Amino acid sequence: MPTDIHKSDALFRFEMTRASLNALTSMISATMSQGDGLDAIAMGVYNLLSDQCDELQTIENAFREDFRRIRQGLEAVQELPGAEYYEQTMALVAKLMSEGKTLTQIEALTKLSKSTIVEFIDDMPDSMKEQAIAESKKADPRELRKDFIASKVNDGVDAGAIANALNLKRETVEKVIRQLKASTDSSAISNSSSDQRSAHG
Q: Is the pLDDT of residue 200 over 70?
């Protein structure tokens, strides 16, 4: 009995036909072996029909293997991200492009490989791509780099890792981090002074 294919399918009927032929082979052979000098012929008939049944078994096994591979392929396709994921990722790549992010920066932010990012860019509608490029030209690369470094520092990322992601020297990243900290400290002092003046007022 088949274990991996539903009983109502064609392969089940194929198997039942083969089993019936096997039974018929045994019946004919047994009948002809009951004397009357037909023993030799019975052996020949049995071997002839048995060979055909063996061939059918081989064909059935091949069909089952093909069906197994097809089913695995269908399951793999079902696990692929859908159209919604594709559109959202493309929109994200376009947004990062419009912010002036480099290919390396987009790779670090999205965890996509550079080749995959390029594929998304190539597949973008012309209007989306042109808008992203136009907006990226308005962005200040230094400010964008500073924002990226600030974001990664807040996430606890090491300066060396940030430098690798941006293809910069570690010293350059550390300099920007010092500037960010100094700016943060100045803002904190300014806010504290304002609060004190408000309290005295």
A: no
Contact 159, 170 (CB under 8 A): yes
pLDDT tens-digit series, residues 52-109: 778 777 877 877 787 777 777 666 655 556 667 888 888 999 988 888 787 888 888 8
Q: Note the residue count of the chain.
A: 201
Asked if 70 and 105 count as a contact pair (C-beta separation under 8 A), the reply is no
Q: Look at the block and give the residue holding tokens 């919604």.
A: 84
Pair (166, 183) in one structural domain: yes
Q: How many domains does the chain have?
A: 3
Question: Which residue do the tokens 């996509």 mark?
Answer: 112
Q: Token pair of 27, please?
A: 């019946």
Between CA 6 and CA 12 the distance in angstroms is: 7
Residue 95 lies in a domain: yes
For the record, the structure tokens of 66 come out as 């093909």
Radius of gyration over alpha carbons of the chain, in Å?
37
In a domain, 148, yes or no: yes
Torsion angle, alpha carbons of 103, 106, 111, 112, to 10? -50
Q: How far apart are CA 98 and CA 138, in angstroms?
A: 9
| Phi-psi label, residue 140: left if phi above 0, alpha if psi -120 to 50, beta otherwise | beta
How many C-beta atoms lie closer than 10 Å to residue 24's C-beta? 12
DSSP state of 100: T
Distance of alpha carbon 89 from alpha carbon 101, whole angstroms: 15
